[in-house]
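A quick aside before the break. I want you to see a complete sequence-to-structure record at least once, exactly as it would be stored in a machine-readable document. Don't worry about memorizing anything.
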Amino acid sequence: MAMRGEFSSRIGFILAAAGSAVGLGNIWGFPTQVASNGGAAFVLVYLLLAFVLAYPVLMAELIIGRANRANMVDALGNISNHAAGRLTGIWGCVTVSLILAFYAIVGGWMLAYFADAGVSLAGATQASQWLLAFSDTRNILFCAGFLMLTSFIVLGGVKAGIEKWSVRLMPTLVIIIVALIIYVSFQPGAVEGWSAYLVPDFSRVLDPELLISAMGQAFFSMSLGVGTMLVYGSYVSKDENLPAIGASVALVDIGVAIIAGMLIIPAMYVALNNGVEIFAADGALIAGDKLIFTVLPALFDTIGAAGLFVAMAFFALMVIAAVTSSISMLEVPVAYLVESRGIARKRAVWVMTTLIFLCSCIIILNFETLFGVVIKATTEWSQPLLGLALCVFAGWVWRRDAILTELKSGYPDVEASVFWKIWPWYVRFVCPVIIAVMFVRSVM
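That is the input. The structure line, written in tokens, reads:
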């Protein structure tokens, strides 16, 4: 068996795992949810749920991964000594591959808009028109480009690929966000945006809809349930204190989501001040892809000459956020092919990239029918159920003493800690119930 990779430093792991967690959802989903769900009240509920629900599941993935030093299929197979474990692992690999198939399409759009800011600076109007037109050719070409970027990093393995690039890309992401926040805050209209984001409307805190969206956001923003954190956990040194390292990942992820809000919401109100429509027909703030591809580009157009540079910086930020997530997704099936099937890493990366690209092409060519369906099936149905399955494996199937031994290797006094007093029964009883209730609500 080939030597398994390992993260060379704690900061390398934290930035890679946080990069996996920080994706487009943090930047385009989180801010608009905050602004339309009672401002800072939503942030408080989200913070609470991130630690009450997402952190325990994150810990389950990290512990299972590191204890078994294996991909998702083998790790769950080892814990359960049963085909059910391996099947759950394969289901995770399929889900994450499908998520990457639609994610790469969106990542491709970000690349196209980034390229557009570049060609517009050069004054190439025709190229710009082609880049902004929603055509199958453009979508397929840029999706391929995005997947090539992703596979280039994953080819390097853990240390020379994932860690090396996460340590460069994550600080760059934060620097770009902060620079854009400073720029936007000085534009007319930004103050109203800051108040929409930071002033809490506490009457909304117990609204079940708010609770459900905050919980969904916490769960999906940490990319849980699909094995990314399990695989990254399997590359962590045995000397590391897992509860502390998991808390750091959760904090970086939440931190980026919150500073993304400090950029997006004031930017929307600056756009409103410049005559751009930011509210949908039902009075809610425009969110998701419409926000990124309609509202913000319209804002960049109204700023004048500086607008192109701001647009370029913004779409560079979106590409980085997308790539740090996509590398962790690709690593899940690649790790399985390398370790379980004995395929060389290089070949495994190209096999998976090709399969995922074919799925992306099928989605692009049947965009109206498939795009929304694939997103719903993977993120709203499959991901919570996988999270539930992981709680069952960590809470019921895997022996308590084995978990304790694993935690002690990097944290000898763990038995006396608050973490050990709460987490085992919590992941056993509380998490599965909350996830199940949420799942039923979202399906109904």
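Two observations worth writing down. The chain has one domain: 10-443. DSSP finds 18 helices and no strands in the chain. We'll return to this after the break.
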